[in-house]
Design brief:
The complex is a heterodimer of chains A (about 375) and B (about 290). By secondary structure, chain A is of the alpha/beta class. Chain A contains twelve helices and 15 strands. The termini of chain A are far apart. In chain B, about 75% of the residues lie in helices and about 5% in strands. Chain B has a two-stranded antiparallel ribbon with strand order 1-2. Classes of the chains: A alpha/beta (about 375), B mainly alpha (about 290). The interface between A and B is large, with 38 and 38 residues.
């Protein structure tokens, strides 16, 4: 009898805890915690963690606590698929990540089939063209950023030829193609087109080729660590500038790793914790206090991604955890800082999941990213 | 032509680092029949000792280097021999190979656990300036790396040939039993070899980390290149390892520049296969015969 009573009590407790778990909003970060893209993925993860901690401290999403699970892709596509399956087996409401475009590509079909919204960090241009109705970006695709950089090179730097050094992965290839397209449209010539490998350590030979091309502008397009190694080699070999790039080249991590070699680097950044916007500065301070390092754009991507989920569930779905309705609501949506202060910057998504925000031209001055110009949003969305 | 000279010099500089690491392979093999598959991680770790000295103890760079050198020689020389090699040495080469592979994983994951998966900046030994020689602008950093590598090897050669201890170490390498009969303290000579290897990896670490940045994965490729260099040059000859390292650095650079970055590892591996097929003792190695 005593055993029966104990058994019943245990069952009741399990039921109660199960019911409580069912009330949680299950989110998963499936991203690059280790491996080649650990810097970017780690920032994204910490942005997600900080947002979840803040939201849970204030009662959760529509009164439901967020249950966040972390899955490490190890920057490896085959591991990414296995980890994504684990996340799906856990019946997640939405997935944040991956950051590596290649890992997004190999996992997006799984999420699309399971009809799970996923807010990605990948920036490869073609990701939003593959017909995935559940995919949403947290930062610009390259097709948005590249024309802005090319306009800067043509109009401000008066460049006629560009020497390009890029990383041969999904992110780099798509970026290279978008840049070439934008250069052709603007009448600029690609004087050097040098492909490098992900995780490459020694860039001496590649930079000799870049130097030999004698282009007006050197364009560096790779992941943060490789960008830093390239810039160190460029300065070592005395390749003349200006040095131009996208968000990764101007990220805080690249600046920290490249040290003096990053000085004078300029380009376009879609997101930056150095943006002259109070909400972003406050976020930067909170992040630094929480994790003891400065967030890069990936941290903002993760952070704002969670707040976008919160806003949509609370304001558009009335607290209902309906994945399909979530995806429908997010297409064509605009969230302003008035709607949700922690979205930081007014953000819109189109019907393909492409994102639109203001963006920035920046330059590295005395080891800091300095915003030189704010570029307007391209279009709008429903609010 | 100027591109060729630049590629050649930067290849020699990288090759010098491979050579230093490969020399360690050959030294350990000759004196104790040890193949250290953690050699790449041995190069990775001292950079973190320097960063710990600078970051946690607030030391200036050069003091941190001296402290790291002492810690490296003790941990990767003395302790490595006492804890890993000595208990295994009587069981033959294979257990040592497996143990050092395990050690490599332990070191890599240990650094990742304690220092994180991120890369860290590391101060270069020279400023990022250039000097022009024969019309080619050569990076002073590359020349310093090359000079330090060659200097370290020359000092090692002078020590081995010009001192009593060095000659005793050579005798130990040639035939430990005869050396023992001649009254040479063989065990101590082997220990010295491990300490010298630790000093060499420390120097290699100082030279390579400003280029690679300090990261827990740095040893993977470096260990492989150094191993290939040692085999190409001759695993039982120190000068073979030097030639193998320099050759590999230059070939690697020319492959990346004139063929493709994607195939830069293919050419060294192709060399390795050719050498194993047609000259298994390596370019400068000597044929060894063993009783079975």
């Amino acid at each position: 009898m005593r055993q029966l009573r104990f058994g019943l009590l245990l069952s009741a407790m399990m039921l109660v805890s199960g019911a409580a778990a069912a009330e949680d909003v299950k989110l998963a970060y499936v991203g690059e915690i280790s491996g080649q893209l650990a810097v970017s993925g780690g920032n994204f993860r910490d942005g997600v963690i900080m947002a979840v901690e803040e939201i849970n401290a204030k009662g959760g999403i529509a009164g439901k606590k967020i249950d966040l699970q972390l899955y490490d892709t190890q920057s490896n596509p085959s591991v990414a698929r296995a980890q994504m399956q684990k996340a799906l087996d856990g019946d997640v409401f939405a997935v944040l990540g991956p950051v590596l475009s290649g890992n997004v590509k190999v996992t997006m079909q799984m999420l699309q089939q399971a009809e799970v919204p996923h807010l990605i960090g990948g920036e490869a241009a073609d990701l939003v063209t593959l017909g995935d109705k559940y995919l949403f970006r947290t930062s610009f695709g390259q097709q948005v950023g590249m024309p802005k950089i090319v306009a800067h090179m043509r109009d401000n730097l008066k460049a006629k030829t560009v020497g390009l050094i890029w990383v041969n992965n999904d992110f780099g290839k798509a970026g290279r193609d978008q840049l070439k397209k934008a250069l052709d449209a603007a009448g600029l010539k690609l004087a050097a087109d040098i492909s490098t490998e992900p995780g490459q350590m020694d860039f001496a030979a590649d930079v000799v080729k870049l130097k030999a091309a004698n282009a007006d502008v050197q364009f560096v397009y790779s992941n943060e660590e490789e960008c830093a190694r390239i810039m160190r080699e460029i300065k070592k070999q005395g390749v003349k500038g200006p040095y131009v790039g996208d968000t990764t080249l101007l990220s805080q991590k690249t600046i920290e790793l490249a040290a003096d070699a990053a000085e004078g680097v300029q380009g376009h950044v879609g997101l930056t914790s150095d943006a002259p916007i109070k909400a972003v500065q406050d976020y930067k301070d909170r992040f630094q206090k929480r994790f003891n390092y400065v967030s890069d754009h990936n941290g903002i991507k993760g952070y704002t991604g969670v707040y976008a989920i919160k806003y949509i569930v609370e304001k558009k779905l009335g607290g209902k955890l309906d994945r399909k309705a979530f995806a429908n609501a997010m297409h064509g949506l605009t969230i302003t800082p008035n709607d949700e202060p922690n979205i930081l910057i007014e953000t819109s998504w189109d019907d393909r999941g492409e994102i639109d925000r203001i963006s920035f031209l920046a330059e590295v001055v005395k080891g800091k990213q300095t915003i030189t110009k704010i570029l307007p949003k391209l279009g709008g969305g429903k609010s | 032509m100027t591109d060729f000279i630049q590629l050649f010099v930067s290849g020699l500089a990288t090759g010098g680092i491979y050579a230093l690491t490969a020399v360690g392979f050959t030294l350990l093999w000759q004196t104790s029949q040890t193949i250290n598959f953690a050699q790449g991680e041995f190069v990775m770790l001292p950079a973190f000792f320097v960063l710990i000295g600078m970051g946690y103890f607030g030391m200036p760079f050069w003091l941190a280097v001296v402290a790291a050198m002492i810690v490296t020689v003790i941990t990767l020389g003395v302790i490595f021999k006492r804890l890993v090699i000595d208990p295994m040495i009587t069981h033959g080469v294979l257990p040592i190979v497996i143990a050092t592979i395990g050690l490599a994983i332990l070191m890599k994951e240990g650094v990742r656990e304690f220092y994180g998966a991120d890369a860290w900046p590391f101060p270069p030994l020279a400023a990022a300036t250039n000097i022009t020689i024969f019309g080619a602008a050569l990076a002073v950093q590359s020349l310093v790396v090359l000079a330090v590598s060659i200097g370290a090897v020359i000092v090692l050669q002078l020590f081995l040939n010009g001192t009593r201890t060095g000659r005793a170490m050579q005798a130990t390498a040639q035939n430990a039993n005869v050396a023992r009969l001649l009254g040479i303290p063989v065990e101590r000579m082997i220990l010295y070899t491990f300490m010298i290897n630790a000093a060499l990896v420390m120097i290699a670490s100082l030279l390579i980390t400003p280029i690679y940045l300090a990261k827990f994965t740095n040893g993977e490729l470096l260990g492989l290149y150094a191993f290939i260099a040692a085999i190409i040059g001759g695993f039982n000859q120190m000068r073979g390892a030097i030639v193998g390292g320099l050759l590999l650095g230059v070939v690697d650079n020319f492959t990346a520049a004139y063929i493709s970055t994607q195939y830069r590892l293919v050419v060294p591996l192709f060399f390795l296969i050719v050498i194993i097929l047609f000259r298994p003792q390596g370019l400068l190695g000597r044929v060894e015969e063993r009783t079975v």
